[in-house]
Design a protein that fits this description.
alpha+beta, 5-stranded mixed sheet, 40% helix, globular, two-stranded antiparallel ribbon, 201 residues
């Protein structure tokens, strides 16, 4: 029947899309592993966070998810590659929204902690079991589907995030509690004092 044809066609298109994303992610990870460093520059994170999160407004609204952005008044400046950092945020916010229940909140916060700038992305999703937390950075690892973390990703997003952050001499941590959601926090070395003079905003 026509309906069945449409149904199978949709499955094929979905699957080919998924494979395309997988190939893109794999090539990206390979490229990341092949380079020692990125082109770096001064990056003011306040603006970068704002812009990266704004792109998710529609997706969030379609799932009735509130996006809350918390930014400090003073500029948070680091040495980095803004395209790659946008990619990190995009991956983390996309994950948070996709793993959130309808009508919940995703909170993105930028701040300082000692000599580090941090960006945290917190969801109110089902959470990740403790025993699986350390495995989430591995390639193709996906948290047990039965816990309703919807399996639309390629299983490479967090490997890419980790790699990019390590290349910025930073670190990324995940904390989670079942039923309470998950928070991913990225730490990047701050530029402090004299070094940051004369930066063009």
């Amino acid at each position: 029947s026509k309906e069945q044809e449409q149904h199978y066609l949709k499955l094929i298109i979905d699957e080919s899309e998924r494979l395309r994303r997988l190939v893109d992610d794999l090539l990206d990870l390979k490229a990341l592993e092949a380079v020692e460093t990125f082109e770096m520059d001064y990056v003011v994170l306040n603006k970068l966070v704002q812009i990266s999160v704004e792109r998710f407004k529609q997706l969030a609204e379609s799932r009735e998810i509130e996006l809350e952005i918390i930014l400090p008044e003073e500029p948070v400046t680091i040495w980095g590659n803004s395209d790659r950092l946008k990619q990190v945020l995009t991956n983390l916010v996309d994950n948070a929204i996709k793993h959130s229940e309808f009508g919940t909140k995703v909170r993105i916060q930028l701040g300082f902690e000692n000599d580090w700038a941090f960006i945290s992305v917190k969801d109110q999703g089902p959470g990740i079991p403790q025993e699986e937390l350390e495995n989430i950075w591995e390639r193709f690892y996906k948290v047990d589907k039965s816990r309703s973390r919807r399996g639309t990703g390629t299983g490479l997003g967090l490997s890419i995030v980790k790699k990019i952050i390590e290349m910025h001499k930073g670190k990324v941590l995940a904390r989670s509690r079942l039923g309470w959601g998950t928070v991913f926090t990225v730490y990047l070395p701050l530029i402090v004092g004299d070094e940051s003079q004369g930066i063009n905003e």
